Amino acid sequence: MSLFWILLLPLIGTLVPLLSARFGRSACAWFTALLPALSLFLVLQAMPAVLRGETLSQTFSWIPALGLELSFRLDGLVLLFLLLILGIGLLIILYARYYLSPQDSMARFYAYLILFMASMVGVVSANNLLQLWIFWELTSISSFLLICFWHHQSEARKGARMALTVTGAGGLALLAGLLLIADIVGSYDLGVVLASGDTLREAPAYPVALILLLLGAFTKSAQFPFHFWLPQAMAAPTPVSAYLHSATMVKAGIFLLARFYPVLSGTELWFLSVGLTGLATLLLGAYIALFKHDLKGLLAYSTISHLGLITLLLGLDTELAAVAALFHVINHATFKASLFMAAGIIDHESGSRDMRKLNGLWHYMPHTATLAMVAAASMAGIPLLNGFLSKEMFFAETLHQETLGSLSWMIPVLATLAGVFAVAYSTRFIHDVFFNGEPIDLPKTPHEPPRYMKIPVEVLVTLCLLLGIFPGFTVGGLLACASAAVLGGGVPAYNLSIWHGFNLPLLMSIVAMAGGLLVYYNRRHLFQFQAQFPQTDAKQVFEQIMQQLVGWARSAHDRLENGSLQRYMFLLLLFALVLLAAPLMDLNATAGQRPNLPVNAVEITAALLLCLSALATMVWHRKRMIALLTLSVVGLIVSITFARFSAPDLALTQLAVEVVTMILLLLALFFLPQKTPKESPPRRVVRDLGIAAMLGGFIGTINYALITRPLHSISDFFLANSKSGGGGSNVVNVILVDFRGFDTLGEITVLGVAALGIYKLIVRMRLYLPAGDESGRAWARDRHPMMLAVISQSLLPLALLVSAYIFLRGHNLPGGGFIAGLVTSVALIQQYVAHGVDWIKGRLNINYQWLIASGVLIATLTGMGSWIFGHPFLSSWFDHFHLPWIGEFELASAMLFDLGVYLTVVGATLLILASLGTLTTNHRPTLAESE
Amino acid sequence: MNVWLEVVVSILLLIGGFFVLVGSIGLARLPDFYTRLHSPTKATTLGMGAILIASMILMSHEQGVLSLHELLITLFLLITAPVTAHMLAKTALHQEAHPLERTRSLQLLPSAREQQPPAGADSHD
Amino acid sequence: MSTHLPILPILLPLLGALLLLLPPLSGSLRRQRAAALLFALLTLLTSLLLLRLQLQGIQLYVLGGWQPPFGIVLVADRLSSLLVLLTSLLGVTSILYACGGADRDGAHLHPLLLFQIMGINGAFLTGDLFNLFVFFEVLLIASYGLLIHGGGKQKTQASFHYVALNLMGSSLFLIALGILYATLGTLNIADMSTKIAALSDGEQALARAGGLLLLVVFGLKAAMLPLHFWLGPAYTAASAPVAALFAIMTKVGIYSMFRIFTVVFGESAGELAFMAQPWIWPLALLTLLAGTVGALASANLRQLSANLVVISVGTLLIAIVLQSEAATSAGLYYLVHSTLVCAALFLLADLIGQQRGKAADWFVMSRRLRQPTLLGILFFVAAMTVAGVPPFSGFVGKVLLLQAAAHSTAQMVWVWPLLLLSSLVVIIALARGGTTLFCRHSNDRSRGEAASPWRVAAVTLLLLAAPLMVILGGPLTQYTREAAGQLHAVPDYLPVLLPGGPS
Amino acid sequence: MEALYASCVGLLSFAGIFLCLRGRTFPVVLGLTLISYAVNLFLFSSGRLLLNAVPILGSGERYADPLPQALVLTAIVIGFAMTAFIVILAMRARADLGNDHVDGHLPPPPTPARERGENR
Amino acid sequence: MLEITLMIVNGTLCVALLLNLWRLLRGPDLTDRILALDTMYINSIALLIVYGIQLRTTLYFEAALLIALLGFVSSVALCKYLLRGDIIE
Amino acid sequence: MSRAFWLPMPRHSALLLIVWLLLNNTLAPGQIVLGALLALLIPLLCAPLRTRQPRVRRPLLALGYLLRLMGDIVVANVEVARLVLGPLQRLQPAFVALPLEIEGELPITLLASTISLTPGTVSAELSCDRKWLYIHALHLTDEQALIAKIKSRYEAPLKEIFAC
Ligand code: NA
Ligand code: NA
């Protein structure tokens, strides 16, 4: 049987509860337990081999580029954790069946829980660093889901978010750490990494990698100063707390420390960072636990404290300490899980977790009370229970280190102090809940829980006893092989027995017990002392910090993106300016070698006209009509410039476009506000003038530098092949319809789509129609001056003829489909101006949308026509024919293509016009009405 | 090139250039809009005509075929110039452009603006 | 037909759009939907076939039979066919989603979506710089039309900014084209790369100016800081299927940067080799930062998604500046992933918003969702994917990029903290947003309508990629590695790209 | 000649850019139009300036570079489409937002500090 | 001789165009400016024709023809705008 | 189909053919065929946008009118040139209301155009009832003489040409 099934079964098991929910709650629980149980069975099957000291592993390739493999590892350490995860997991499934109320979705809960279980299995069994990280993150996610299970509670949401934030941050740090380790070692394979301890410790990046990895571990294991999320996670249902926050997830950090112990430990940095963090956490947790009135709060801080203890043990960096750490992992899991479950039962059956209300429950639930008291005793470290054994080992190990030099004595003293508090809060858990008078104001009368709900607690408490009394027999083998995995081979000699004789550790235990009882007895003074300090709610602080962060982000974001086009445009231009400045400074000689053309009067005049008009447009942009007129002059001069420098086609196009644009602008002006206020402050104007001048200067300079240099271009090809290959002597037109016909196809598509877009814009437009012009004068009432109408009518055929002329000759002489289309459009626009939209619409019922579409379609199909002859898209075809009497003439596919262009242009222009025409109402005063 | 041809073309060009210039001088010089309206409308027609005829003659000679298409431009200008002038005058009337003080029959302006018969002219017909 | 395969992803959507505008399809919405879906699916199919075809070698489609560098060519290599496939897939989902009702909000939605697909595919496939400009304009004008779909103040205002900035961008593009043509005398991208090293000093400075102007243009399209301002308002305002398709638009800018700054101004460019990267470097980090801050500041899911797009842009820019083949490969994987998941998020925002009534997708208390489980699962998957949390596709791209950045400590110390920090912030923002959207309920007992199956199908289709891209991560990263190899070794492919030799 | 030409291109860009930075839609449209003139001239001149060299075969001994001309033609058409769109969009903005400011909302009127002091 | 004539004619056309611009910028009424623009259109036709004569080519004929047609349309549209606001109602 | 459908404007068609040949500077048979085709096609397209206008009844007279107009234009130009270049103080502009006798849109338009093209006059406005044409004169000495001249020299022939 493949080892993978150990991981795969719980993964698949995630779906089981969702599918089995319909069969009832008990069935759901049983079905859910099935696959994890099977998985546990597989683990047990593999156990003997592992206990013999074998390391089982299995690998599949997954994403080699990433270094990610699906690789499973089963050694002693993995075995220990797998037993905990799967074993306690099964108990939790049973417990949760009774814990959850009928309103709670059991399927959802179990799905999350099994997902978490699978993730944990994945973490511990990963033999690939990335795989480990993947499952590590999954534990964060599934724990988020579990904490947030009662998502209608604000507490739960906040607690879950906080846990996710902290563990998420840790996860990312861990990723960085793992990537660094892999980078140093050169492999993501855990086996390789574990064999490269010296390489790692000597690498310059070792401290960074270590710290990053520790960040991952500490956040997960709630080590100081990242401990604050764990108490907030208590908003989760108690089974979750019992499982995640005592037995498994928080141990993932410990697992990580243990896993990398062979390669990362053994340095001063390790001791200082791990050991001192553990010590601080141990003390802090134990101390705070005492003051928590909430049962689960007490347990949460106690958990923090115990995790600190294990961390400290690993930090002590001795082999025995490591063994003790592993032992305490087991012990803590057993007693803390049972305590959480007991607390859950109390909460469930009495309706409260407040120890100030809970009193004397012994009378109501003696069975549960017994179990809880045994577990609590174990937590306190009472002999005959497993907690005692590992604590004893811990005390012993604190005595055996000298890293802190002359301050080394402090560690055992502080450890004992933590022991004192542990005994105190354990005593409180027992005395304050089960004795201490009668309950106060409980929502329900407490009673024993359902039979099966107690079974998990019983199992765990029995384990506490068994481990405590027969440690060697019960866990000796497991511990030995786990320690071997952690220590990388040699296991130190140790003795797992209850009685080691009278020694210093025993004394420390006695001191702790006596001190603990004393502290608890005098708790009133201590509580009073503690009450002086303001209570800080971690959740509130965290939320506040988050709010502040969001607020800060928002104001930063809003300050940057203030919704002003002027600023965006300015930044765009500034960016272009900065980018252009650098290469221009490299440009030593502005002028090139090419001989310049002479200048004559016409050119100077044209330049003068162009510049003056452009400046006038700029200066008088608020006098809209004048600006429009000067803009037209600019357009006119530009087209004449094209003509002068040998580009008649361009001149024609520019002219036609110019007029259509002007008409469009006139149409727009009618609806735009008639006055443009002067609102730019002088400083803004100067700034804009500055950037405009600089950028304009740059563009001019570049232009000059370019056109004074000689050019060798691909154009000779076009001149050489235009006639022979394209069948036309107007090379520009042949380029447009043949050599680069694909550009033209795109271009007419743009035109057509623009018209469609404009149609979309206009269809929903509701505009106010000004009743008079800028000076407030009412509009003239003569809608369609008669002379204009008559002349326009007679001009139309002429204009159409001209456009046909321009169309037909385009291939050989200046002209072409586009210009012809624009001329046709202008001629028709002239009809609109002379007669109005309604008049035209009534007489010329053309669907312009169809015209556009068929235009582009004709061009496209012309291009596809060449497929029939086995040529690529847009391959042209032309031939000369001779008919008697008529003479020689040419037919070319380019003509058809150009026809498409023509139709598109006409359709697009007129669609825009016709839709604009629908904007005005017919209820404006006219001459006819006034008569 | 034939000298006479050159002379004819040159003269036509000069005439054209002159009238075009006169049109623009008038546009710049005349005192009010209504008077300015006259000069380009007319001067340019003749000016353009002359230049176009010069082009016709020269091109016919150059290409060896009768080149008459310049006539079309003349035709266009002759058809459109009056309409442009009419529209501009109409606009000026509507916008109440200030005529020269000494213009005669200024009393006609209000009725012209309203496109009504002149006041007191009902007896006509 | 297979000889014409490279052009079909451009022609099919074009033909579809045109037929949709003509009778008999223009008359009925139902016929429009069917036809639009059909053409989108055909495009997807041909994209797939093209992807398969070019595995045998780069496919060159010589338009009109005019050999490069004289005519326009389409180049289907690993990179372009992958992106064409991505676009086509996105197109299918957008149209599918639009069939769920968004196409009733205004005219011509389906044709415009098809035009947009045509433009984007064209931009990816063309091997000619001016043709790239033309396709930029096609996709832009289609996007203008799409952006205003549905109407409303927000759209109008966002559109004006978007259009005005892009018009300026197009002008700069033309100037850049003018400069490059005036110095290199050619428009074919591969041909340009052969010419650039031989320029004289002065021409070199000018070509550099042209190249840097292109950086402005592509930066604007890609939403690189400080040119990213249009993105937030536009993507937030756009109708859902439109925003989903827009998710690929920024990638066109990124793609063009890859093409121009590693091919034309790549290793063989002599003095001008990798001349844009030093400029992109700080901007990439700042873009990432801006997106991250924006994500934290977002007040609704669409804003958040838009900022996630900005973050993805920053990340991709980092992939560009890292310059190595590994980084490019990582970038390409990340590009595909981020496009799909951002698109899914935009659609989800709409789905969620519709069920939450007035509160829409704002992060405020609202009535309960009609389908909390379904949408919750979809959102959860999308959130994990986009945040780069395993096991979904996000982490692969991110880890690949982190690995690529590890090759130089100088780059690592910037990239790693920023990238990881940004991931954390995204997780925080998504957790805050998600818990509010799904868990904070008011007392309003009214219920919205259930999501139409079209829409759910579209989102699911997009999100299926999240696990699939991880499961198939091996072959996929292999593919992106090959694509990066082709991109970085253009001189080796010149005989294919310019069969007749350089001009 | 080249210097004169380049100066004109520079000046057109200058005027256009300045107008693009204005706060109302109409000047922005004007500015974009001016810039497109400048850009078209710029792109056109990338084939260098030649007199009497129309690229029509048989019309003379030498020909100007036809390619930039074709490119500019395409650019003009596309520019026209884009200009048309933004013009109508400006109208739509006016319709939807009630004003013609490029940001869709009018900037707050400048209130000198003195005035505010008086109001208090 | 023709060359000199052409130079002179070019000169007069330039002066004419500058005068037109002066009127266009000066105004005072919008109608004056429109008239100036219209005249400018016509003068540029002359300029193109003369250029054609100079180069002995008819390639600029269409441009001249188009200016004639388009100049008219644009002047009329401008007038209509001043008269009615909406030019295509 | 009736002839009016296929050939809605025969005169226009003829004119268009001529213009086509003018445009192409040719009498090649191919161009004639093409021109004829267009001359038939374009009126067909324009037909819907046409309003009925009075026919030219006397084409010869029209030709004479055209020639006279040409002559007058030349004179007008010289006249205007003199006025423009002369001292402006002596300029006496005037508005004149011209009572119209002819009817019909086309004849009135032609008259107005003629007036605008000829010596020192511009047709400024037409009254709604189309009975009055407002004229601006650049330099007017005798109003009645001007009216009489217009009526006899232009209006009367036009009336005859269109027989209205
Ligand atoms: Na109590
Ligand atoms: Na324009």
What does this structure look like?
The complex is a heterohexamer of chains A (931), B (125), C (503), D (120), E (89) and F (164). The relative contact order of chain A is 0.05. Chain A starts with a helix and ends with a helix. With 931 residues, chain A is an all-alpha fold. Chain A is elongated, with a radius of gyration of 43 Å. Chain A is built from 38 helices and four strands. In chain A, β1 and β2 form a beta hairpin. With 120 residues, chain D is mainly α. Chain D is built from four helices and no strands. In chain D, α1 runs antiparallel to α2 (25-45) and α2 runs antiparallel to α3 (66-97). The relative contact order of chain D is 0.12. Mean pLDDT of chain D is 87; it is low at 113-120. Chain E has 89 residues and is an all-alpha fold. Chain F has 164 residues and is mainly α. In chain F, α2 (10-24) packs across α3 (29-46), α4 (59-85) packs antiparallel against α6 and α5 crosses α6 (143-162). The relative contact order of chain F is 0.13. The chains are: A mainly alpha (931), B mainly alpha (125), C mainly alpha (503), D mainly alpha (120), E mainly alpha (89), F mainly alpha (164). Chains in contact: A-B, A-C, A-D, A-E, A-F, B-E, B-F, C-D, D-E. At the A-C interface, β1, α6, α7, α24 and α25 of A face α1, α4, α5, α6 and α8 of C. One sodium ion is lined by residues 635, 657-658, 661 of chain A.
End-to-end Cα distance of chain B, whole Å, is 61 Å
In total, the number of strands of chain F is 3
Number of helices of chain B: 4
Tell me the helix content of chain B.
over 70%
- How many beta-strand segments of chain B? 0
Oligomer state equals: heterohexamer
Interface with most residues: A-C, 116 and 121 residues
Query: What's the overall average pLDDT of chain F, rounded?
Result: 86
Structure summarized in a few sentences:
The complex is a heterohexamer of chains A (931), B (125), C (503), D (120), E (89) and F (164). Chain A is mainly alpha-helical and 931 residues long. In chain A, α1 (4-13) runs antiparallel to α5 and α33 (786-809) packs antiparallel against α34.
Notable characteristics:
heterohexamer; C: 503 residues; mainly alpha; two-stranded antiparallel ribbon; 2 strands; D: 120 residues; elongated; disordered C terminus; binds sodium ion
Indicate the topology.
The complex is a heterohexamer of chains A (931), B (125), C (503), D (120), E (89) and F (164).
Chain D: H1 2-20, H2 25-45, H3 66-97, H4 113-119
Helix pairs in contact in D: 1-2, 2-3
Chain E: H1 2-26, H2 30-55, H3 61-84
Helix pairs in contact in E: 1-2, 2-3
Chain F: H1 3-6, H2 10-24, H3 29-46, H4 59-85, E1 94-99, H5 105-117, E2 121-126, E3 132-137, H6 143-162
Antiparallel strand pairs in F: 1-3, 2-3
Bound molecules: sodium ion (2 copies).
